[in-house]
Design brief:
The chain has 3 domains: 3-91, Arc Repressor Mutant, subunit A (Orthogonal Bundle); 125-260, no CATH class; 265-321, Alpha-Beta Plaits (2-Layer Sandwich), CATH 3.30.70.20. 39% of the residues lie in helices and 18% in strands. The protein has helices spanning 3-13, 23-26, 29-40, 45-52, 56-69, 87-96, 107-124, 152-158, 168-173, 187-196, 204-216, 245-251, 278-282; strands at 72-76, 80-84, 130-133, 162-166, 181-186, 200-201, 220-227, 232-239, 259-260, 267-268, 288-291, 294-297, 317-318. Helix 6 (87-96) packs across helix 7 (107-124), helix 7 packs across helix 12 and helix 8 (152-158) runs antiparallel to helix 11 (204-216). The termini are far apart.
């Protein structure tokens, strides 16, 4: 396969021209032809076999490899049909699943591209793509808030499939040493990851333990959406502001509508507050300050994550419904 064929593949995958040279590093010539075919319409293995004039067993092997590498979407109905994911999604799979070494000298540039594309999408999308979820330990009684559901645990309780994997952002950017095993995929996305071998299926009780560890390390729970208006969540992440693309889009690039608040706001009992400043260190949204030796909540900045609640030594901070 010549360079012109890979240029055609780059166009099919919507890859920037500057990254055309990346494709031969991750796509074999025989795989490229299949990807180009699937970029025009979704097809079954039987249909691909006929159009490529290859044995079904050969096509099936290539499709299996491409699916495992994260190139393909699989739609199961009466038959199983495949289509191609965009370049940005493929790159995110490689980076987030600790396979960046395949990119060689392009790895750093692709990680930067991943963040830039995320910020660009965040700015153009009129709706949030994530929502802060209050830490379960910060909630003293059940609460009801509008869209989607109130805590990470209630979302997980309703999920038909849960899986655990490394945090894709911390794997990609490596800006801190926070725990890696904190990303909880659910439902269809979870099924895909487990089938590809990129995540491990876990129980609801095991998922709750993951959330507890995340709280201990000052990580913020977020629900990530495939569709904000329908309230469709695909991932529950426990995030740090130095690596998370969602938090960085908000904090570093000022895309304020990108992350929705939980609907709750922290409060402080001044009689109990000893002014230790623990809550200031825990808050990533700059929603705290000290005045006259007491902690004050800056309400417009508070996202209701609950990180300040779970480490307050005097129980002065609450997250009331």
């Amino acid at each position: 396969m010549c360079l012109e064929d890979y240029r055609q593949l780059a166009k099919a995958l919507k890859a920037p021209p500057m990254f055309t040279d990346v494709l031969p590093l991750i796509v074999k010539p025989e795989e490229a032809e299949i990807l180009i075919k699937l970029s025009t319409k979704e097809q079954t293995i039987t249909e691909l076999s006929k159009s490529l004039k290859l044995p079904q067993a050969t096509v099936n092997q290539h499709i299996s490899n491409l699916f495992i590498k994260g190139f393909l979407k699989k739609k199961k109905d009466k038959t199983t049909r495949y289509s191609v994911k965009p370049f940005q999604n493929i790159i995110s799979r490689y980076l987030g699943e600790n396979r960046a070494s395949a990119f060689g000298k392009y790895a750093a540039a692709l990680a930067k591209y991943r963040l830039e594309e995320h910020v660009k999408r965040a700015k153009t999308d009129p709706y949030p793509e994530a929502k802060i979820l209050p830490i379960p330990e910060a909630i003293t009684e059940p609460v009801t808030i509008i869209l989607p559901t109130e805590t990470a645990t209630t979302i997980l309780q309703k999920a038909n499939h849960i899986s655990l994997r490394n945090c894709e952002c911390r794997i990609t950017y490596k800006n801190c040493n926070k725990p890696l095993k904190t990303c909880l995929a659910i439902n269809e996305f979870s099924n895909e990851l487990v089938e590809r071998g990129a995540a491990q299926e876990i129980s609801f009780d095991e998922a709750k333990k993951v959330l507890h560890v995340a709280n201990e390390h000052g990580l913020v729970h977020q629900a990530l959406y495939t569709d904000w208006l329908k309230g469709e969540v695909f991932d529950i992440c426990s995030c740090c502001p130095c690596c998370c693309t969602y938090l960085r889009a908000y904090i570093n690039y000022g895309v304020k509508h990108h992350i929705a608040k939980s609907g709750l706001t922290a409060t402080v009992d001044p009689d109990k507050c000893n002014g230790c400043g623990t809550c200031l260190k825990r808050c990533i949204f700059q929603a705290r300050k000290l005045e006259d030796g007491k902690s004050i909540v800056i309400k417009e900045n508070c996202h209701g994550c609950g990180l300040c609640v779970t480490t307050c030594p005097t129980n002065a901070t609450k997250l009331p419904p």
